[in-house]
Amino acid sequence: MLIRFFQMSDIGLQRSLNEDSLLCRPPHDFVVADGMGGHVAGEVASHIFTGMMNQLLSEHEGSLDQDGLRGMVIRGNRAILASIQRHPERRGMGTTATCLHLEQGKAVWAHVGDSRLYLVRQGSMRQITRDHTYVNDLIDSGSITPLEAESHPKRNMLMRAVGVDEYVQVDTGEFGLQHGDILLLCSDGLTNMVTEDAIRTVLEAESCANPAASLVDCAKAGGGIDNISVIVVRYYAE
C-alpha cells in the first residue's frame, strides 16, 4: 500500500497540558484520541487508549473488519475503566477515539466522541464521522440551527466518550479508496478554530511540505484555545 502520512500534536496557546494522543502504524493504522477529565486524567485516558490500540493492532493477524475494530475500541474502554478502579482519583476521565484502518483498497473506521475523520476527494471534503455532542443531537432533531450551535453554552458537551461507561456505543463504517484520496483525522482543537474550506485548501496545496504542521499553525493563528492534533494520510493506488 502506497501512502504518505504526516502527524502533529500541539498543546495550543491557552492550555497548560496536552491531553491528546496520536497513534500511527503506517501504512495501515491511525488513531486520534482527545482526552478529557482535567489536569492529568485526560492525558492518562488518551494514552491508555492509544497504548491499548497499539498492543491490539500489533497482535492482530489477517484482515481487520468493522467488528474487529469496534472490539478493539471496546477493549480500550475497559482498559480505562480498569485504571479508574485502581486509581479512584481519576474518576471522570475519558477520551474521544477516531480510528482508521487501511487495507486492500478500502478504509475501515471506528469512532466515539467529537474528534473527526474527513475524506478529501476530487476537490470536495466530506466529514465521515458524526460528532457525538449535545448540540449535534439538537441540530439533528431540528431544535437549533448549526449557526445557533456555534454559540450554544453546551456546545462542547460530549454525549459519548471512551472510558466513561461500562458499555460504549461505537460508530463504524468503511468505504473504498481511490488514488489521490486524502484522509484527515483530527481533534476538535483544529475544527473549532479553522473552517472546513480553509482545511481543504491546506490539504490540497501541492506546495505544502507538511500539511499537519500547517493545519496546527492555522488553528493557533485562529486562537489555539485547545490542544490540536492532526494526522494526514495521502493514498496512492498501487
Short description:
The chain has 238 residues and is an alpha+beta fold.
Write the layout of secondary structure elements.
Elements lengths: L1 E9 L9 E6 L3 E8 L4 H19 L6 H21 L7 E2 L1 E7 L2 E7 L3 E6 L2 E4 L6 H8 L4 H4 L21 E6 L5 E5 L1 H4 L4 H9 L6 H11 L6 E9 L2
Antiparallel strand pairs: 1-11, 2-3, 3-4, 3-5, 5-6, 6-9, 7-8, 7-10, 10-11
Helix pairs in contact: 1-2
What does this entry look like structurally?
With 238 residues, the protein is of the alpha+beta class. The protein starts with a strand and ends with a strand. It has 7 helices and 11 strands. It has helices at 41-59, 66-86, 134-141, 146-149, 188-191, 196-204, 211-221; strands at residues 2-10, 20-25, 29-36, 94-95, 97-103, 106-112, 116-121, 124-127, 171-176, 182-186, 228-236. It is globular and about 50 Å long. Helices cover 32% and strands 29% of the residues.
* DSSP helical segment count: 7
Q: What proportion of the residues is helical, as a percent range?
A: 25-40%
What is the SS-derived class?
A: alpha+beta
Overall pLDDT metric: 94
Order of helices and strands: EEEHHEEEEEHHEEHHHE
Uncertain segments? none
Distance between the termini: 7 Å
* Largest sheet composition: 6 strands, antiparallel
- Secondary structure: number of strands: 11
> Strand fraction band?
25-35%
What is the C-alpha radius of gyration, as a whole number of Å? 17 Å
Shape: globular
